[in-house]
Amino acid sequence: MSSTSSPSTPYPTRARFFSVPSLETIAAWLLALIWIFPLLYACWAAFHPTAYMVRFDLFAPLTLDNFKNAWAQAPFARYYLNTFMLVTGVVLAQFIVCTLAAFAFARFPIPGKNLLFMLVLIQLFVFPEVLIVENYRIASELGLINTITGIGLPYVASAFGIFLLRQTFKTIPRELEDAARIEGCNWLEILWKVYVPLAKPTYLAYGLVSISHHWNNFLWPLVVTNSVESRPLTVGLGVFSAPETGVNWATVSAATLLSIAPLLIAFLLFQRQFVQSFLRAGIR
Amino acid sequence: MSFTDHRKMQLYGALLLLPAAILLATFAYLPTIATVVNSLFLPGFRGAPTQFVGLENYHVLFDDPTFWKVARNNLLYALGTIPTSIALALAMALFVNGKLRGRGFVRMAYFTPTILPMIAAANIWMFFYAPQIGLFNTLLGALGFSSVNWLGDPSVALGSVIVMSIWKEAGFFMIFYLAALQGIPPELKEASDLEGTSRWSFFWRVTFPLLMPTTLFVLINALINAVRVVDHLFILTKGGPNNATNLLLYYVYENAFSFFDRTMAATITVVILLVLAVVATLKFTVLDRRTHYQ
């Protein structure tokens, strides 16, 4: 407050408010507008008649017809259900399988443990989609073609999840484990009552990253599914908007928004958690 | 701990590993081995047994100009996307790390493409690139330029795909830089302010070197993505025109599921696996020499 009384700067707050933005601010905002523009454009196209695709008229009539058309032309309800089942199934299975493996790596004396762990880490580079041909053959031998299990199963033993959870488990003090053992807990009870609760932030971070990855995944689900019954949203959208199907663009925009809406709304609501999850999960 | 207790622990640990081990063997190790083996054989026709041909499939592949075109495309794709998206990511992180009006919105705008599926992003960009009524050509037309066939002209198609990829990736890399920037002790900045160091030289002498591990981390991820992510090709170009935008993994997909040449697909997959092995070696030796894989 003392500076307010100084004669040289009578209205410091107002002066700052009216100051010309720096070159850096302008650049930052320009970049932000370019980056958000495609999404805004898709919204514009989805809520206006096709005629306004490239004619920006502030008073263009708003319409929901594009969404109606999209919903009528492809079984989006089924796609939502499939994606939802896929994402919940994969994340739950990953949590179980990766927790057990991470616990083994963090706390048990296994012969050749370091070598085994390096073998697991290979999967950080060799993803299921790189091996699509052989994985397709294996999935078909297991009778998993055109099933949601078939889309998810190759990703369940995630090296990334095992690595993240192992790191977290290693930071948990052994004293807590000893205390639980004195209370009479066996190994699985120790895991469930001591390690899992203390690793909650890691589960949250990994869960969000995994949800967004599997919601968005395309190539492997495309290969392994061939009908509406098992297709997730991304594959449904890809089939829907293939150029040769000749669907009108406003409808494609609406379909695109339909497919991304749940994840996008979740992101807008929990932006902070998303960004931090990617960060937490990414620094490995 | 007694000897038998130790044995019990070993057994217990092995049992805990078992589900992950079975799944990894099924969907990572066995397919990798099978891919390498398949690349050394030719399938028999009409019930004839498969035939070991050694490196013959590789000779065929390396004699195929299309393969070299695809490999070159992938290299250009990597060179086109990686440095630019990393530089933009760094700039974005510097922007939102400082004082900035509307910082929350700006950060959200940068990060939003990361949340979108590549296939949805490609759908949106398809409108921009469309030849007749696409947004870019409408803009060019309004400015009096003739239109460009963004995805149909072999000389610009790959560039168009690259631009979209940069847009998709930069915001993701930004958050790693942002975290690293926030980890730099503020005393360094204060000290350099006292010395009267310019912001420019502070960046090049202090910030940039301190961000080196982050840059390497981001680089590894970008390299993997350059080989792995091909979803946008399914919407934008399907590898065309005349393979101008075809990339290695998409070429594998085409060989396996359009041309039904599983042997060639396996051979190209081995090439991809070799590239990924180089990236992995880079990561485990250069990047993680003193970090936490033990």
From TrEMBL, chain A:
ABC transmembrane type-1 domain residues: 80-270
Subcellular location: Cell membrane
Keyword Lipid metabolism found: no
Membrane topology annotation: Multi-pass membrane protein
Transmembrane segments: 26-47, 84-108, 114-132, 144-165, 249-270
Primary site of residence: membrane
InterPro entries given in the database record: MetI-like, MetI-like_sf
Keywords per UniProt: Cell membrane, Membrane, Transmembrane, Transmembrane helix, Transport
Entry keyword annotation includes Cell cycle: no
UniProt record similarity statement: Belongs to the binding-protein-dependent transport system permease family.
PANTHER family: ABC TRANSPORTER PERMEASE PROTEIN MG189-RELATED-RELATED, LACTOSE TRANSPORT SYSTEM PERMEASE PROTEIN LACG
Protein name according to UniProt: Carbohydrate ABC transporter permease
UniProtKB/TrEMBL annotation, chain B:
One GO BP annotation of this record: transmembrane transport
Membrane association type: Multi-pass membrane protein
GO cellular component terms given for this protein: plasma membrane
Cell compartments where the protein resides: Cell membrane
Transmembrane intervals: 12-30, 75-96, 108-130, 156-181, 202-224, 264-286
PROSITE patterns reported in the protein's UniProt record: ABC_TM1
Cell membrane as UniProt keyword: yes
Domain ABC transmembrane type-1 residues, every copy: 71-283
Key word Cell cycle present: no
Family of the protein in this entry: Belongs to the binding-protein-dependent transport system permease family.
Protein's recorded name: Sugar ABC transporter permease
